[in-house]
């Protein structure tokens, strides 16, 4: 077996002109001089994050001018966020991958060599066939994130495997979705099905909407604030929404379950629950009442630091507003390893308020009934992803990234090959680099499909350059939400360099693998047109309008007294979960105190910054100019103790000895003295990301103390501690 060295994707790639494009002045897209040129526009779906806002790409004389929101798009309120407006930077980035690259050994040293598409695809299909013949197609797994991954999932399934995992589950919203499913039988959806614009009271529990810039959510929260919603923000940090809240509850990190149980205690002991709703729809109320009896506001105060009268007052505010009350499910829910239980507590609290599927609480999402293009049935795989880690995480409803990675290490590893699409695992999974190296050494094939020379590409056998979202068709957007709609992403430009669209790459591989019948269309336009014709539209129409809104077929909320079957074993909302009890877990959430902060250390808090999406946009030339680096929030007392000045650079160290890149300090009262805070996505190591390489610190590399949720396998990341290593002058 060959050993793979980590290769820095280096100067093998050609460079393009070093001049800034004409519209890139001062970090934002500027208007061209009036009256010049011919302006045209075409529709797109933004890919600067995963929210999928519909936009319009404007060109002047065929040259990219700007991207704006599509005014008919209810999903985005017709507007793009800062990152969406910076989309041209993704297309123009000089550091983009330009040609397929293959790992070769030259003079005993491994390096990447430019190869033709033919050569790269031939190599991959031979290896895939080898894996299928020797071990079975199921031994090929996919790790992915983002809409474009669908083309490769289709290829994987046609090939005979359904083994896949994404960090959007185990490193993001997995525990939330599982917690809600265990309780109300459904997930909180993406986009989140919160009816914020109609809510009278909203609790944000560690969900920093405003810094977390999911577009429509920010707009509906702003709408609610304009209508005088009672906003309660529970966050140890004075976040953007905390500043707009009636109540800011600076909770002691890791104690949220105690607060949620105390709120339930108040609602039940003061008879403030929606008893009609509970009688009709829920089971386990008596057990819950008994369970939360000990979680009195007085007791919980000692754990959370939130005064008993504030706990009571906020519980009453929620009850007063109910059912137009939302305890927001959050999104990045992987905190302390008890995350499914915390998410369950959130779902249960919403049930006590009667807000699930009620106006001002949660709504029932609806999609357009869009038929799939007819293809033969996929072969039935002999194994599913979970068979690679039997007995672990019984409620994992999707593949678990860490499980797949662990099952790819060693001679006898379960998985023999990986397709990696649109995910930068070295940054998005803490404490994973040694494992990635070991997996890369064990696997027979490791393909990375990317637009940029990310850290992940350094582990590949073959790197395939995908063109950006502005140069390709992808699937129609058809998300379950308030207003069913379809949106089109189409190419505004020919793919630059030798990059290719994902659908083309998947189809080429399919053809080489004898799977032509799964790719019966000539190109993706043909497939999309067929689908659109089935719902009374056409590609031609969508190319003009970009977004088509459809009427709802079903009510947005439960009707009064409606009989409902929930998708749980009891067909009711399960306040008491027999499913969990049967597998040896607590049937109702139990609070366990978080690990204390070791002396001399600070809790590592992290989150989002408005101008960037993780590490995916930090090299974007437009967004780089807006926000070149992340900052470390430090409380003045702590700064004083360490003699650290505002704007000074420091390094951080973890208890296991990891040292971060240097990061600029922002001294602020908005963070307490027990924690520091930074935005995730910086501190890139790949030198070919020439703008962002080495700039700012990476929270992931400081995370050695991760807490895996035993229920569904997610990676709790908030239990990490750091201390300062001062830069020598
Ligand atoms: N330490 C830490 N870890 C985290 C988080 C955190 O806050 N802190 N957040 C977690 C969360 S919430 C999530 S959702 C995950 C996200 O984790 P990932 O999905 O891995 O996100 P990124 O790190 O942005 O990596 C996306 C990669 O896709 C590439 N890419 C961009 N556009 C395209 C395209 O059109 N085609 C292809 N093929 N590739 C493209 C980018 O260049 C980039 O390398 O990370 C999780 N991990
Ligand atoms: N601009 C921008 N927006 C984004 C993204 C992006 O990369 N950039 N990524 C998107 C994605 S994929 C996701 S998943 C979401 C994530 O967005 P969110 O779900 O909002 O989550 P986080 O980014 O983890 O930030 C959570 C907040 O939790 C607070 N916090 C920390 N510890 C605790 C605690 O113990 N208790 C409580 N109550 N609060 C705590 C932090 O101070 C922080 O303010 O953002 C999305 N939106
Ligand atoms: S929220 Fe912003 S970055 Fe995300 S899809 Fe919408 S406009 Fe693009
Ligand atoms: Mo996420």
- The CATH topology label of the domain at 194-362 and 561-582 is Dimethylsulfoxide Reductase, domain 2
Principal-axes geometry comes out as: globular
Our estimate of the beta-strand percent is: 15-25%
Instruction: List low-pLDDT spans.
Output: 9-30
Query: For the largest beta sheet, what order do the strands appear in spatially?
Result: 7-6-17-16-15-8-9
Q: What structural category do the secondary elements indicate?
A: alpha/beta
Q: What is the count of β-strands? A: 28
Let me know the average pLDDT: 94
Count the helices. How many?
21
* Terminal Cα span: 47 Å
Under CATH, the homologous superfamily of the domain at 194-362 and 561-582 reads Dimethylsulfoxide Reductase, domain 2
Look at the structure and give the CATH class of the domain at 194-362 and 561-582. Alpha Beta
Task: Give the helix/strand layout.
Blueprint: E1 24-25, E2 28-29, E3 39-45, E4 54-60, E5 63-69, H1 82-85, H2 88-92, E6 101-106, E7 109-114, H3 117-134, E8 140-144, H4 149-159, E9 163-165, H5 167-184, E10 201-205, H6 215-226, E11 230-234, E12 247-249, H7 256-269, H8 275-281, E13 282-283, H9 285-292, H10 297-304, H11 308-321, E14 325-327, H12 339-352, H13 401-406, E15 417-421, H14 425-428, H15 433-442, E16 445-450, E17 462-465, E18 485-487, H16 502-512, H17 524-534, H18 539-545, E19 547-549, E20 573-574, H19 578-582, E21 602-607, H20 621-626, E22 631-634, H21 636-641, E23 649-653, E24 663-667, E25 675-679, E26 707-708, E27 715-716, E28 721-726
Parallel strand pairs: 8-9, 8-15, 10-11, 10-14, 11-12, 13-20, 15-16, 16-17, 21-25, 22-24
Antiparallel strand pairs: 1-2, 3-4, 4-5, 6-7, 6-17, 18-19, 21-28, 23-24, 23-28, 26-27
Helix pairs in contact: 3-16, 4-16, 5-12, 7-10, 7-11, 7-12, 10-11
Bound molecules: ligand MGD (2 copies), iron/sulfur cluster (SF4) and molybdenum atom.
């Amino acid at each position: 077996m060959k050993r793979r060295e980590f290769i820095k994707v280096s100067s093998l790639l050609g460079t393009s002109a070093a001049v800034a494009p004409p519209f890139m002045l001062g970090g934002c897209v500027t208007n061209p001089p009036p009256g010049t040129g011919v302006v045209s526009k075409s529709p797109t779906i933004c890919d600067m994050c995963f929210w999928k806002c519909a936009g319009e790409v404007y060109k002047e004389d065929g040259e990219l001018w700007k991207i704006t929101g599509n005014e008919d798009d209810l999903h985005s309120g017709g507007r793009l966020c800062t990152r969406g407006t910076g989309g041209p930077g993704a297309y123009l980035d000089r550091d983009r991958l330009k040609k397929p690259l293959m790992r070769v050994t030259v003079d005993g040293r491994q390096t990447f060599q430019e190869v033709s598409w033919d050569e790269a695809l031939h190599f991959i299909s031979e290896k895939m066939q080898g894996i299928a013949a020797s071990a079975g197609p199921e031994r090929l797994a996919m790790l992915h994130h983002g809409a474009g991954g669908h083309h490769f999932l289709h290829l994987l399934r046609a090939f005979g495997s359904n083994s896949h995992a994404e960090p959007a589950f185990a490193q993001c919203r997995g525990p939330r979705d599982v917690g809600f499913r265990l309780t109300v039988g459904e997930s909180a959806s993406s986009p989140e099905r919160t009816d914020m614009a109609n809510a009278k009271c909203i609790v944000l529990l560690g969900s920093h909407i405003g810094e977390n810039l999911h577009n429509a959510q920010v707009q509906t929260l702003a709408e609610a604030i304009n209508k005088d919603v009672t906003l309660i923000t529970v966050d140890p940090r004075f976040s953007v929404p905390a500043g707009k809240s009636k109540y800011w509850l600076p909770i002691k990190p890791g104690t949220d379950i105690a607060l949620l149980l105390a709120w339930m205690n108040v609602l039940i002991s003061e008879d403030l629950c929606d008893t009609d709703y509970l009688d009709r729809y829920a089971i386990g109320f008596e057990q819950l009442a008994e369970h939360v009896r000990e979680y009195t506001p007085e007791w919980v105060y000692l754990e959370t630091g939130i005064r008993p009268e504030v706990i009571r007052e906020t519980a009453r505010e929620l009850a007063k507003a109910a059912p137009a009350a939302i305890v927001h499910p959050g999104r990045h829910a992987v905190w302390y390893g008890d995350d499914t239980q915390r998410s369950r507590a959130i779902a249960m609290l919403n049930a006590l308020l009667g807000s699930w599927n009620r106006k001002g609480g949660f709504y029932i999402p609806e999609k357009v009934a869009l038929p799939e293009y007819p293809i033969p049935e996929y072969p039935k795989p002999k194994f599913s992803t979970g068979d690679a880690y039997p007995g672990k995480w019984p409620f994992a409803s999707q593949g678990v990234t860490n499980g797949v990675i662990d099952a790819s290490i060693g001679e006898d590893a379960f998985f023999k090959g990986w397709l990696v699409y649109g995910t930068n695992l070295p940054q998005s999974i803490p404490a994973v680099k040694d494992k990635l190296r070991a997996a890369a050494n064990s696997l027979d094939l490791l393909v990375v499909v990317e637009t940029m020379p990310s850290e992940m590409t350094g582990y590949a056998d073959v790197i395939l350059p995908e063109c950006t979202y502005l140069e390709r068709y992808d699937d129609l957007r058809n998300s379950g939400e308030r207003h069913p709609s379809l949106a089109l992403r189409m190419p505004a430009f020919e793919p630059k360099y030798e990059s290719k669209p994902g659908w083309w790459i998947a189809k080429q591989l399919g053809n080489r693998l004898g799977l032509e019948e799964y790719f019966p269309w000539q190109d993706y336009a043909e497939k999309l047109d067929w689908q659109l014709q089935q719902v009374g539209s056409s590609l031609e129409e969508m190319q003009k309008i970009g977004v088509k809104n459809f009427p709802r077929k079903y009510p947005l909320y439960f009707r009064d007294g409606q009989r409902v079957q929930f998708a749980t074993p009891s067909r009711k909302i399960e306040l008491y979960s027999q499913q969990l009890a049967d597998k040896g877990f607590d049937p109702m959430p139990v609070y366990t105190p978080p690990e204390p902060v070791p002396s001399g250390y600070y809790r590592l808090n992290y989150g989002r910054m408005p101008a960037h999406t993780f590490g995916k946009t930090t090299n974007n030339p437009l967004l780089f100019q807006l926000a070149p680096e992340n900052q470390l929030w430090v409380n003045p007392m702590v700064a004083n103790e360490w003699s650290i000045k505002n704007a000074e650079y420091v390094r951080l160290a973890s208890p296991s000895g990891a040292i971060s890149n240097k990061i600029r300090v922002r001294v602020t009262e908005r963070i307490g003295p027990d924690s520091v805070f930074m935005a995730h996505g910086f501190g890139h190591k790949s030198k070919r990301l020439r703008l962002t390489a080495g700039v700012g610190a990476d929270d992931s590399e400081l995370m050695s103390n991760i807490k895996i949720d035993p229920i569904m396998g997610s990676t709790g990341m908030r239990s990490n501690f750091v201390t300062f290593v001062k830069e020598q002058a």
